[in-house]
Amino acid sequence: MSRPATPSTRPRTRPRTVLAMSGETRDAILRPTALERLARVADLEPALLVTDFGADDPAQRAALRDAEALFTGWGCPPLDASALSAMPRLRTVVHAAGSVKHHITQDVWDRGITVSTAATANALPVAEYTVAAILFGNKNVLESARVYRESRSRVNLLTAFPAIGNYRRTVGIVGASRIGRRVAELLRPFDLRLLAHDPYLDEESARALGVERTDLDTLARQSDVVTIHAPELPQTRHLFDAGRLALMRDGATLVNTARGSLVDTDALVKELVTGRLNAVLDHTEPEVLPADSPLYDLPNVLLTPHIAGSQGGELHRLADAAVDELERYAHGLPFAHAVDPTTLHQQA
Known about the structure:
Layout: E1 17-20, H1 23-29, H2 32-41, E2 49-50, H3 58-66, E3 69-72, H4 81-85, E4 92-95, H5 106-110, E5 114-117, H6 119-138, H7 141-151, H8 157-160, E6 169-174, H9 178-186, E7 192-197, H10 203-209, E8 212-213, H11 216-222, E9 225-228, H12 242-247, E10 253-256, H13 265-274, E11 278-281, E12 301-303, H14 315-330
Parallel strand pairs: 1-2, 1-3, 3-4, 4-5, 6-7, 6-9, 7-8, 9-10, 10-11, 11-12
Helix pairs in contact: 2-14, 6-9
Family: Belongs to the D-isomer specific 2-hydroxyacid dehydrogenase family.
InterPro entries: D-isomer_2-hydroxyacid_DH (IPR050223), D-isomer_2_OHA_DH_cat_dom (IPR006139), D-isomer_DH_NAD-bd (IPR006140), NAD(P)-bd_dom_sf (IPR036291)
Organism: Streptomyces bacillaris
């Protein structure tokens, strides 16, 4: 992550700032060193944490009344008109996580409040997970591991897996989002053909990314691995339904680190049960599958519990990115990762 284009000195102002997130989020993201740096950048009470803007707490009411900035994270309540009425001096919201759709409302934009997000920082581990899934998918790791585990003897790879490998295979990237673009960047060193589909991706941007623009059906037909990075919108629900899944090549792998609703789970299960397709799923619909779902046990499925995004030590990157943004604000500089309300509908 880039640092603000300012010396690491005390900012021009230290904006009055209030933390608004769940206690679990604060404890996970704001390690002591991050809190110390935040306290140098902002005027805040680290022990004061807002989890409910309507709470009957005199100290909270006083802090919100004077707040110029909110430092938010997962678990921040919605910033609607009622919440904002208690914050007459609020000028900016810095979010130490990805999507702001859970707490930023139209009332925020109507008041001219600026918003920043650490979505770019959060995109990095998702892209890394995805690249690992793509390379393992083309290498047929799940199936070869199963065969080896069951045989417990030497496997003749030339006869058992004659077509595996990543050389000149085709990867289809659905969605030129922050994550989709980062996936394309990370795949550049490999001998892969990259297809991409995104209604907002123009030819010049596609060339810069090193991808071929194509329609979604062509991408599904030609790709050895399809990886989904589109936002969850009404028009993207079941983007991969029974018909589109049927277009995919025999033996192809579907990777979903976006949202479960983008794939018709019932249709996917039918394909996977036959063994025709493989899948790496970090998101499903529902997000926690029923205990009797076959996806837990199918040998051609790698199912993970929403781990692709920032976890563990990666959470500290989110805090660093958010403090960077608040430092920029304190120095009177524009955000490096401002949220544009006019394009928010296109994003996760």
